[in-house]
Specification:
The protein has two domains: 3-113, Aminopeptidase (3-Layer(aba) Sandwich); 124-275, Gcn5-related N-acetyltransferase (GNAT) (Aminopeptidase, 3-Layer(aba) Sandwich). It has eight helices and eleven strands. It has 280 residues and is α+β, with helices and mostly antiparallel strands. Strand 7 and strand 8 (197-205) form a beta hairpin.
């Protein structure tokens, strides 16, 4: 088995155990040849610990991010700290950088090393179909994605997520890469059309039965008009119509209080969180 296959098996194993992939989309695919991922420990060809880094470029600057993954029996603070030390070379020794954590053992290890919390994103869940889905729909024309929408989608994404380095980094190359993923489904991408793309809701179906609002954005000039609610309703309605989806999920930055309040008004509740740490 190649190291690429070993890493893929490691990721699949942890995904089944935790119910969520150990690395974010920005860190995938985990190809050792990319020099963005390192296997820190393995035994008999089985990966036990891995780390992955991504370089997010926005506003003319490059920010480096690191994530680590360990098998459950190794999740204690002292060991997590050793993993961080071994993974630091992936960051190329440059600033600025941050480390993401979704494990209390890693939180403790980072705190011991002087890191401080910078940002938290919450994973919200809700049973589908939404009980009050009809009430979320406003009067905005919504249709499904066609190839000619790509430029407009990227433009709206950049405007809506200005200042949010991960989301704003979506470009044509990244979008093309997503389109080649087996989970991509153009029927699950919805467009709010107002003489061009004014907003979009992009869904993703996971093997475990979760239907995710992968990304939703509205052009700032149309925010506050109810367009976001219409797009959200379209996305969740589509996911509810699929036989392979049992619940709706999404990630939200806790600093985005408006969005968080909207999602909770639909009955969404927090299941887990992912926290960004920066050097103190």
């Amino acid at each position: 088995m190649s190291q690429h296959d070993q890493i893929a098996d490691f990721v699949d194993t942890l995904t089944r155990y935790d119910g969520i992939p150990p690395f974010s989309d920005a860190k995938l695919p985990l190809d050792p040849a990319s020099k963005r991922v390192v296997v820190i420990a393995e035994k008999d060809g089985v990966v036990a610990i891995a780390a992955s880094a991504s370089h997010v470029q926005s506003d003319g600057s490059v920010h480096r991010e690191l994530e680590t993954a360990t098998r459950p029996v190794m999740r204690f603070a002292a060991f997590e700290g050793a993993v961080i030390d071994a993974a630091m070379p992936l960051l190329d020794g440059a600033d600025p950088y941050s480390i993401w954590s979704s494990r209390s053992s890693l939180d403790a290890a980072l705190g011991d090393r002087g890191f401080v919390k910078s940002r938290t994103v919450e994973f919200l869940v809700v049973d589908l179909p939404l009980v009050d889905a009809a009430a979320t729909s406003a009067d905005h024309p919504i249709r499904t994605f066609v190839p000619g929408d790509t430029d407009g989608l990227i433009r709206v994404n950049r405007s809506a997520f200005d200042g949010h380095r991960e989301a704003a980094a979506l470009d044509m190359e990244a979008f093309d890469r997503y389109q080649r993923e087996p989970w991509f489904d153009a029927e699950g991408v919805f467009i709010a059309d107002n003489d061009g793309v004014a907003g979009f809701c992009w869904t993703k179906v996971h093997p475990n039965g979760d239907g995710e609002i992968f990304r939703i954005a509205v052009d700032p000039i149309h925010q506050g008009t109810g367009m976001g609610i219409s797009l959200l309703s379209a996305g969740f309605s589509y996911l509810a119509s699929r036989s392979d989806v049992r619940r709706g999920v999404l990630w939200v930055d806790t600093a985005n209080t408006t969005a968080a309040r909207l999602y909770r008004s639909l009955g969404m509740t927090r299941e887990r969180a992912n926290t960004e740490f920066v050097p103190g």
